[in-house]
Amino acid sequence: MNPVQASHPDAFLPEASSERVPMLDLLRGMAVLGILVTTIQTFGLTEAQVQQLIRGPHGGTYKLATLVQVLFGNAMPALFTMVFGAGILLFLARPKTAAGMAIPELYIRRQLWLIAFGLINALGFLCTSDLLFFYGIIGVFLFPFRLLSTRALLIAAIITALIYSGKTYWNFREQQQNYEKFQTVEGLEKKQKNLEKKGKKNSKAKKRELTDEQKEAKSAWEGLLNDQKFDPKQNDATIKAMRSDYSTVWNHLLPKIQATQAQYFYRLGLWDLASMLLLGMVLFRRGFFTNQLSTRQYVILAIGGLLTGLTLNGLAAFSHESLLRDFTKYVATNGLPWHDVFRPFAQAFSAMGWASLVLVIYRAGLVLWLWQAIGAVGQMGLTAYLIQSVMGTLFFYGYGFGYFDALPFHQLYTVVAEIWLLQLVFSVVWLRHYRLGPVEWLWESLSYGKWQPMRRHETSPETARALS
């Protein structure tokens, strides 16, 4: 039995079962590997450096960075999230466990442990793009949604996506309002200067000072404007910190990790991820993840999804470049924040398009050995995801090999290829001897409160019950 055929059906849930859904492992593996295409930039470069690549000359590096953004964008994290959403339904559909523990109780325990793994990934491994913490929290809130009809789940997915878009638009409107207030203040200041030049020293206008509200409005806009500018000194300080010891790197990244897991998550990330989780539930019920659609349907979804997703990604990339080049002009001349407002829809279409394309190729029987290896990575999705964090941080950060800011942009993808190769080989070899990945085994053991069997010839209580 090859690794794909021996895969577990649960999206990111390492629970033995009598049923197998190989496509979930395949797509999960594809998503895990694909995530590294975008996260490698956060491991090896500062955010300011990536932005400078976009602002810079339209040479080969710019074209590569834009190509990565347009082709993938957030598609792979979105697909990873969708598969996790499918796994929620799979897990909660099970009967009572052999140990007598109710499935809802076990599910909540697993989600709480997933939160712990997310904290370890972010605060221990220093991964600034962790998803596990979010999955653990949102998964608890989505527990009642398993009872909804497929149509209701789809409506909920669309509503949460629209909430994200609405909040993004609202934030943009606040920026526009800040700019309008700044223009008013700037006009008053210019008027004062003109009066001074004319020598009207006794003019009331000359002696009039800005109110506290006007000073605050001016400061707010200037703060936004400064955030968009490239600061060489700050960038150099970041590089120096990232090349230092673990403690220095930890202290430098902690504010960013906290802002992501708190402020960003509760303002925007919650709605973005919830929409993808709910969409994953819908696609699972429709048979998308279980290979039940016709080849013609997958072809249509591949073409339609990629055309729509890549078009929206292209629009977002062009808009983001305009924002970085001239933030004031971007805010003053646009009615929508095109760089981000359609993100849930762009990543959803892209993810479905890429997944459909892979399933079409898989059905055609092409390079099956590769899909089997990717399926093995997917079966060990949690392990593979955390290994990427460990390998990425150890290779680039100062407490490891210290290659941060040492490689040209294009060479980052040489590192991606090497990590992919290691993960593919490791996953295939490991699953020849063990029923679960090492982190999946730990997660299962912690959830049940006792050590679970790990080798293939050992039978867990759950497997024994399922086969009886």
Automatic annotation (TrEMBL):
Q: Where is the composition biased (Basic residues)?
A: 198-207
Tell whether Transmembrane is among the UniProt keywords: yes
Q: Where is the DUF418 domain?
A: 283-450
UniProt xrefs under InterPro entries: Bact_Transport_Assoc, DUF418
Sorted alphabetically, the keyword list is: Membrane, Transmembrane, Transmembrane helix
Q: Does the keyword Glycoprotein apply?
A: no
Annotated region (Disordered) at: 193-214
The record's annotation in Pfam families points to: DUF418
Q: Which residues form a coiled coil?
A: none
Which sequence ranges are marked TM in the entry?
A: 67-92, 112-145, 152-170, 298-318, 345-370, 382-400, 412-431
Q: What is the protein name given in its UniProt record?
A: DUF418 domain-containing protein
